[in-house]
Amino acid sequence: QVQLVESGGGLVQAGGSLRLSCAASGGSFSSYAMGWFRQAPGKEREFVGTISWGGNTYYADSVKGRFTISRDNAKNTVYLQMNSLKPEDTAVYYCAANKWGARSSRGEEYDYWGSGTQVTVSS
What is the pLDDT of residue 34? Predict the structure, then answer.
């Protein structure tokens, strides 16, 4: 059974930075595409970005140029570096894995999910 555990969330002032981590266990991490999503209170889950098994990325327009996804296959970990944070980035952030290695912006195409980590950006 694949498990994903996010960490690194917290409270930060607008303009600040955070780095989220997602540690995977129990599967073939290096072959998975990984995605980051977020959900703010009262809103639907939103795609943030994704990275292929080979390291190719793409991002939602709302975070492009500010957020960067990377992965360390030796550590079974994917990262989300968030810079120039804005109050509207406040949400619970989730990582997800697609076991077929397919990048997607659609949450329903991911097979495994973490439980999330809270990010709060104060103005």
Answer: 98
Q: How many CA atoms lie within 13 A of 122 on its CB side?
A: 4
Q: What pLDDT shows up at residue 27?
A: 87
Question: With helix as H, strand as E and coil as C, how does the chain read?
Answer: CCEEEEECCEEEECCCCEEEEEEEECCCHHHCEEEEEEECCCCCCEEEEEECCCCCEEECCCCCCCEEEEEECCCCEEEEEECCCCHHHCEEEEEEEECCCCCCCCHHHCCEECCCEEEEEEC
User: Residue 1 — pLDDT band, cuts 50, 70, 90?
Assistant: confident
Burial of 94 (0-12, 13-18, 19+ CB in 10 A): buried
Structure tokens at 46: 């939103």
Percent of the chain with pLDDT over 90: 96
